[in-house]
Amino acid sequence: MVGGRRYRGGRGAATAGLLAVALGLACGKGEGGGGGAGAALGAVEDYLRHSKAAEPKTQVGAIARSALVAFEREHASQDLLEPGMAAAVSRRLCGAAVAVPAEVPKGKKYQPDTAEGRDFHTGDAERGWRCLRFDVAEPIYCQYSYAADTGFKASARGYGRPLGPGAFEAAAECDFDGDGKTSFYARIGRVDPEAGAVQLDPELFVVDDGE
To answer: How far is CA 128 from the centre of its chain?
Structure first.
């Protein structure tokens, strides 16, 4: 795989360790001079960066779970039926959703618009955030997106497997420090036509974590 890495749990232990190092160095500031203080500042910055990165990892997982639940819902045919006939039902992925917000926030949070027809309140029963039944009301650091069948961002960020019809991508793109270089987080799923179920990649795809 080029350009990215796979991510498993352990964030809590890592961030707690960084904070402990930072506090330890800060406490030694008076005895050890400026070097300890500088190291402490760097450790705190690392801790804050990792803390911010927890948001996209959590929300991308939630979007992916919403896609799984939506796929399991049965969709009845809208065709007119003769009396006594039963409507055919099927399972399918929700169609793509608009990215929220439209541009990646640069070093600051974005407050989603909760008005009808805006941000996470867009789409319908077959596509978009409405189909996924996914919503975020609190301020967010990242741009969130959902793609199905086409329009995958992960391919351009070094994801190593082919993506196409029958696949979906829950993704976040973030610029935590506002320098124009973005972090990317994605969870990929694919419909297994033989099993009639969605198979999720076991790990989160991450590029430039915490940028």
So the answer is: 15
The residue ranges of every structural domain in the chain are 5-207
Whole-Å CA distances, 142 to 13, 75, 171, 175: 23, 32, 10, 7
pTM for this prediction: 0.77
3-state SS, residue 76: strand
Let me know: does 104 contact 174? Beta carbons within 8 Å.
yes
Tokens of 52: 């911010």
10 φψ region: left (φ > 0), alpha (ψ -120 to 50), beta (else): left
- ω into 101 cis (within 30 of 0): yes
Element (DSSP H or E) covering residue 77: none
The Cα–Cα gap between 101 and 111 comes to: 9
pLDDT digits over 35-63, tens only?
A: 666 667 667 777 777 789 999 999 999 99
